[in-house]
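Can anyone check this?
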Amino acid sequence: MTVEKFKTFKEAEEALWCFHPDEKYYKKVRQLFALAGHFYKPACKRGIRKYKTIQDANKDISFP
């Protein structure tokens, strides 16, 4: 990995962009999302539920 120097933050930000991704790039993205999935589990329950009132629905909402 090479060391790069930048004069502005905008130059550094643009250096992170990938205009021509290859298979290696997509493999790294898949691995990153898989890793993130292990650390973050959604707090909401999956599926569709039916409620009689909005108060019942509000009681079922759970946030971490």
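Reply from J.R.: I decoded it. The mean pLDDT is 87.
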